[in-house]
Design brief:
The chain has 25 helices and no strands. With about 625 residues, it is mostly helical. The two termini are about 40 Å apart.
């Protein structure tokens, strides 16, 4: 019986041992460690760090923590959902594989590979002891903490994968499980810092800490402290081990109930059908135009209403509360107003998503409605980003007094969050649209259309850009709020003849160019991995982009040090040295990024041709 249960797991392990990609990943990990050691050695040589070993070890440990969290949202969440999406779970059941065998066979190889990637690091991290500032006990304690965290994320991922119908739903469940305790911890900390002293708040905060990933960060912080002499196996490890085992047993218990329909059904709720049959892009655009004066009225009327209700002077009304009122009105009022406008302006149609766009725009229409959610998806994103903007405004206003409110600070946060979220959303949309064609085996049909593969790829990109309208508006508003401060600093620098000020102004277009290059690189990496691997393509793209930026930052630092030493030795003009220190690394980074972007684009084209010929 045990042999039959472990048959699928044994097969998965053998396949992973024969795949060259897994061995290449391990060798790549070793190369990354050697690079990080080189970086720590350079820090020691130039006397930037007093404890290079501790800095090297901290960098490795917290990088592992972040990547384990990201991997838990993709690496483990697709264990069962990929079988549901590919409609092969029923075949496994027909073959006589019991639920425990399916769970072990799907989760076991991934869990062992994750633990192996952690174990490979252990001998190399021991070299941090020779660099100084770290003891072997700290390394052992940190890696047992990370191993327990992997077990917890594996149990959480398999449970979400059993319950959810699609990988996206499972990943969303993991995100909510991670974010909700963190948000509750933040709110409880804000209440405690505001002078509210209740024993229940302290008890609740300590209880939430044990179900939050922040407990891992706290434990790692204790391990990283100088003079650490605690236990190697802490209570956190045993709690995570018990939690992972409990969730695995729960997945086993509910497996049959959650997989009675062994494939993902194209089921749309009646409310979703009703909204899709009414809402169109024209309706949403008309509603937004109608909401703009309403939002302006809310922004102007809120201080007066607050003054009347609370009996406080009008000048004491915090600006961030007006922003929160506007964002909440937009998030809650826009969906209701859109439905009302749709009912008034048009009759209900039998088609759920309207007519297809003509000619070359048909592929854009298809991906917009079937991959990114269509108009309903855009409406949902508007509500989410509005609430996110309101949360940022509330936090900025809460921690700063009303007389020190700065619109540029809010704009900076909106610009940064918009760029980050928009980049992730763009890469995810492009990768998911390509993965959608791959799973549906429609690449061969699309390649036969009277258009080039480049036109096909551009249609994917354009449809993903259309879905970015909400986050693009958020980013644009943030950029406009910051623009006045940036323009003022540029004019002040232009009015002075100091060369350092000119170099500071020159950094602005250079940084913008590099950011655009990094966005293009991340999107192409996501698209390539979506055509290459079955799961985790967004996380893999994040990891590759992160390490490429780390290597580029190290090379940039070496360029600057080299020009600085050369300028000091030759006695050259400092302005010329600053100009060379800025332009030479930028030209090199832009050239390398452009070459990688072009190479990845051709690699994606050839990969699509290869997959289309096989399907």
């Amino acid at each position: 019986m045990l042999r039959g249960t472990l048959a699928l797991m044994t097969r998965g392990l053998r396949l992973d041992c024969r795949r060259w990609q897994m061995h290449a990943l391990r060798f790549l990990l070793v190369a990354i460690f050697l690079f990080m050691m080189l970086f720590a050695w350079v820090e020691n040589v130039v006397s930037i760090a007093a404890t290079p070993g501790l800095n090297f070890f901290s960098y490795i440990t917290y990088t592992n923590f972040v990547f384990i969290t990201l991997g838990g949202m993709s690496f483990f969440t697709s264990t069962i959902t990929e079988e549901k999406e590919e409609q092969t779970l029923g075949l496994l059941k027909m073959a006589g594989v019991n639920p425990l065998g399916i769970l072990l066979g799907k989760l076991g190889p991934r869990l062992l590979n994750a633990l192996l990637l952690l174990a490979i690091q252990f001998p190399f991290v021991q070299l941090a002891v020779t660099l100084g500032g770290v003891h072997s006990r700290q390394i052992q304690a940190a890696y047992t903490t990370l191993a327990g965290y992997i077990l917890l994320m594996a149990g959480l991922g398999i449970l979400a994968s059993v319950i959810a119908r699609r990988t996206r739903q499972a990943a969303l469940m993991i995100c909510m499980t991670i974010l909700v305790p963190l948000i509750l911890q933040g709110l409880l900390s804000i209440l405690s810092s505001g002078g509210t002293q209740f024993p229940q708040l302290t008890i609740a905060r300590e209880a939430i800490q044990w179900i939050s990933i922040w407990s891992v960060a706290v434990r790692l912080g204790e391990v990283m402290s100088l003079g650490f002499d605690g236990a190697i196996l802490d209570r956190q490890f045993f709690c995570h081990l018990a939690g992972g085992a409990t969730m695995f047993v729960t997945s086993w218990a509910i497996f049959e109930r959650c997989t009675r329909q062994p494939h993902t059904a194209d089921h749309v709720a009646p409310a979703g059908r009703l909204s899709r049959s009414h809402i169109r892009l024209k309706t949403l655009g008309l509603t937004i135009l109608m909401m703009v004066p309403v939002l302006g009225l809310v922004f102007l009327a809120y201080p007066h209403l607050r003054s009347i209700v609370l009996g406080v002077p009008l000048r004491n009304s915090p600006p961030h509360e007006s922003v929160v009122a506007v964002t909440v009105t937009l998030a809650l009022g826009l969906p209701l107003a859109t439905l009302c406008v749709a009912r008034v302006t048009q009759k209900r149609e039998r088609r759920e998503i309207g007519e297809c766009w003509p000619k070359a725009r048909s592929l854009v229409w298809k991906d917009l409605h079937f991959v990114t959610g269509g108009v309903v998806g855009i409406l949902t994103r508007i509500a989410l980003y509005s609430l996110l903007t309101g949360l940022v405004a509330f936090l900025v206003g809460f921690f700063d007094p009303p007389d020190r409110w700065e619109w540029s600070l809010l704009g900076g946060w909106m610009l940064g969050l918009g760029l980050f979220a928009g980049t992730l959303e763009l890469g995810s949309n492009v990768g998911r649209s390509l993965r959608f064609e791959l799973q549906g085996q429609t690449l061969s049909t699309l390649v036969l259309l009277p258009q080039t593969i480049r036109a096909f790829l551009w249609s994917k990109f354009v449809s993903s850009l259309v879905a970015l309208i909400p986050v693009a508006v958020m980013t644009l508003i943030g950029g406009l709020l910051v623009f006045s401060e940036v323009l003022q600093s540029i004019l002040q620098a232009a009015g002075r003849s100091n060369g350092g000020d000119f170099i500071g102004v020159l950094y602005i277009p250079l940084i913008i160019t590099l950011i655009l290059m990094q966005i293009a690189l991340f999107v192409e990496l996501t698209a390539y991995f979506a055509l290459t691997v079955r799961w985790g393509y967004v996380v893999l793209a994040i990891i590759c982009t992160y390490f490429m930026n780390s290597i580029g930052g190290f090379a940039w630092s070496m360029f600057m040090l080299m020009f600085s030493f050369a300028g000091a030795a030759s006695g050259a003009d400092s302005t010329v040295i600053l100009l060379l220190m800025t332009l030479v690394p930028w030209v090199t980074a832009a050239g390398v990024s452009l070459a990688v972007v072009i190479a990845l684009f051709h690699a994606i084209e050839s990969r699509i041709k290869q997959l289309a010929s096989q399907s």
